[in-house]
């Protein structure tokens, strides 16, 4: 069976700057940590993706403390790290090549923000032919206004992003389900 790669999206210190906004899945970090521990124990492939902004004023600008990975899920030296400048972890990063060279066809995607980099990456993964899973309780996002200006809760934003992905682009699972059925 082909190995499944764990793809951890944008788990960086800069995300803490959004702490004043309402968010969902307060246990997401611990769930990502549990998945990461499982992958490490199995010596399975892990890729960490971080956002490096092109905007000098961003908390994710090169050299800023916001670029640093969250210590609870920081990469080890033997784990792949990819830097992106847009929402999609595949665009101009080498991630696809890294996966193809290793014969990896199955991806498990976790991280932040569900409707942003997680959704964008999962859509591209599917379009590239990868068997894609998104772990709903190991992703999170923040409240935001919709196109009409109505404030949506973080849970509403999260749920809509997962609905956008479900069936057509990815299988949406939870941590317990994934760990119960997965052979990493």
From TrEMBL:
It comes from the Bacteria. CDD domains: nicotinamidase_related. Gene3D superfamilies: Isochorismatase-like (3.40.50.850). Keywords: Hydrolase. Residues 5-176 form the Isochorismatase-like domain. One of its GO terms (molecular function) is hydrolase activity. Pfam families: Isochorismatase. The keyword Aminoacyl-tRNA synthetase does not apply. This is Cysteine hydrolase. It comes from Pseudomonas matsuisoli. The lineage of its organism: Bacteria, Pseudomonadati, Pseudomonadota, Gammaproteobacteria, Pseudomonadales.
